[in-house]
Specification:
By secondary structure, this protein is α+β, with helices and mostly antiparallel strands. The protein is built from 11 helices and 5 strands, in the order αααααααβααββαβαβ. The chain has 3 domains: 59 residues, no CATH class; 95 residues; 147 residues, 2-Layer Sandwich (Alpha-Beta Plaits), CATH 3.30.70.270.
Length: 340
């Protein structure tokens, strides 16, 4: 295989699967393209058949190489940092961190000012104590002066406290919004993997009855290839809305790429599986069209695997069972759902 052509194919593979062009991904794709008959290449081919997009977790599960640092090259220009352009959420987090630090420093400065004023006022009281005792006129004059100074300092402190309280409240609201944004998928508005894992951990701690359903859009690569990524994104958004409607009362998340995860709680396994089947039927019946051309996208389906939480389960064991059922549904023809 010609070297330049191989590099082009590796680059195209990474782009198709939206994998970052880091050394581990290059090594993995190089291995499966240069030896297509290897067990690793065959396993990858089975997984992506029909348009399933590979994720980093899939590569690790297939036995691909773990990320390794690039060897030093004295003649190569320094590589940009991996997150050279920060994402919106990262930039927002950095901004809020700076605001929080500024707010803390402002509070500290205010407290130091109040402490200094208090000390100065105490010194004034001590200096004027003798004057207050000298006589009625001098004493009353000194007392009036001290009272006026005390009121002015109290009012100044109240103004500082009111301003700082308002700033702290505004910052609290921004932090709450940022926390929600960090747990929300920007494309579909659904919960993301972080929020899903937090909710799943809570189920583990409370031992509440729960079921995990993994749903993966069938032949999604075909949609992107034939209609473009913008249409593909709208398809994901539409499916996310259907899952949210059918799964109302339960946690629906976009878990990555074209894969969705549903945490179904406090119902029987039969009821949970019925929910998944209703969602599959709703997606299958939806007639989606490309907005730009009005052309029908064709029938959209997804495959699913659902498993029930068992005592002693971890996230890894629960997802492993759901994954196995999902891939079985894919291998058996897609547009299927299996449960254990």
């Amino acid at each position: 295989m010609h070297k330049d052509r191989l590099y082009d194919r590796i680059g195209q593979f990474l782009d198709d699967h939206r994998l970052a062009p880091d050394p581990a991904h290059y090594a993995f794709v190089h291995a499966i393209l240069t030896d297509p008959n290897s067990s690793l290449a065959r396993a990858a081919a089975d997984l992506i058949d029909g348009g399933v997009r590979l994720h980093q977790d899939d590569i690790l599960r297939l036995g691909g190489p773990a990320p390794q640092p690039m060897p030093p090259d004295d003649h190569a220009p320094p590589a940009p940092p991996r997150h050279f352009v920060p994402s919106t959420s990262e930039a927002q987090t950095d901004s809020l961190a700076e605001q929080t630090q500024g707010q803390v420093e402002a509070f500290s400065a205010m407290i130091r000012t109040i402490q200094a004023d208090t000390s100065a006022f105490g010194a004034d009281l001590a200096r004027n104590a003798a004057a207050i005792q000298l006589g009625a006129t001098n004493g009353l004059n000194a007392l009036a002066t001290l009272t006026g100074e005390m009121l002015e300092r109290i009012h100044a402190a109240e103004r500082q406290l009111a301003q700082s309280t308002a700033e702290a409240e505004a910052l609290r609201e921004k932090l709450a919004e940022a926390r929600a944004t960090a747990r929300r998928d920007p494309l579909t508005g659904l919960a993301n993997r972080l929020a899903f894992n937090e909710a799943l951990n809570q189920c583990f701690q409370t031992l509440a009855p729960c079921h995990l359903a993994l749903c993966d859009v069938d032949r999604f690569k075909r949609i992107n290839d034939e209609h473009g990524h913008a249409v593909g994104d709208r398809v994901l958004n539409a499916i996310g809305q259907i899952l949210a409607e059918e799964g109302r009362g339960h946690l629906v998340s976009r878990h990555g790429g074209e894969e969705f995860a549903i945490l179904i709680s406090n119902v029987s396994a039969k009821e949970a599986f019925s929910l998944v089947e209703r969602a599959r039927a709703s997606v299958r019946q939806r007639n989606l069209r490309a907005r730009e051309t009005g052309e029908s996208i064709g029938q959209i389906t997804f495959s699913a695997g659902m498993t029930t939480f068992r005592p002693g389960d971890t996230q890894e064991t629960l997802f492993a069972r759901a994954d196995e059922l999902l891939y079985r549904a894919k291998n058996d023809g897609r547009d299927l759902a299996y449960c254990d």
